[in-house]
């Protein structure tokens, strides 16, 4: 009969009644090492997540501010261009000094057939700025993503010069809570004189 020798690991130290379940120089991890690694991983994950959330928030705030600014600038440019090309302010339908003002201008620009002068109106309706030319459909100058909270005209006259000061405030419409990023612009334009 062959002589077989079976080696059993020493689970009991000589002279002791304690079992030795922790191997020395093993390739595995202890429970404490796993807990430390998991804690470090969670901390790194939280830091990266909060950084990502902050980047998304800053990007969204910037986008809202850009949308408000673009709408306010576009509306202001169209209005001041029309004022500069107008021949007169039509005061019977203009409303000056009120928050939801209206400006009516007499102009020779974009004339209907067989007309010498025409009228163009700027007014606030349903929190948007509209441009209305005589015999044409009104045009919304601001996008539906923003609302106009202030739209005021001031009629300035001095000597032979006539000017109109335009003040408007535009803010982003947000269904959820978030920064409104209002933009306020004020500009004065003189009517052409000839």
Descriptive account of the structure:
The structure is a single chain. The chain is α+β, with helices and mostly antiparallel strands and 194 residues long. It has one domain. The protein contains 1 helix and 8 strands; from the N terminus they run αββββββββ. The strands form 2 sheets. The protein has a 5-stranded antiparallel sheet with strand order 1-2-3-4-5, with helices on one face. Strands 6-7-8 form a 3-stranded antiparallel sheet, covered by helices on one side. It is rod-shaped and about 95 Å long. It starts with 30 loop residues before the first helix and ends with a strand.
Features:
single chain, 194 residues, alpha+beta, 5-stranded antiparallel beta sheet, 1 helix, 8 strands, rod-shaped
How is the secondary structure organized here?
Elements: H1 31-85, E1 86-89, E2 102-107, E3 118-125, E4 128-133, E5 139-140, E6 146-158, E7 161-172, E8 183-190
Antiparallel strand pairs: 1-2, 2-3, 3-4, 4-5, 6-7, 7-8
**Order of secondary-structure elements:** HEEEEEEEE
Overall geometric form: rod-shaped
User: Which structural class do you get from the secondary structure elements?
Assistant: alpha+beta
Task: Give the strand order of the largest sheet, numbering strands 1, 2, ... along the chain.
Answer: 1-2-3-4-5
Q: Provide the low-confidence segments as ranges.
A: none
Kindly, what is the distance between the CA atoms of the first and last residues, rounded to a whole number of angstroms? Answer: 129 Å
Average per-residue pLDDT, rounded, comes to 83
Number of strands: 8
Count of structural domains: 1
Largest sheet: 5 strands, antiparallel
Number of helices: 1
Radius of gyration (Å)? 37 Å
Question: Strand portion, in percent?
Answer: 25-35%
Helix content: 25-40%
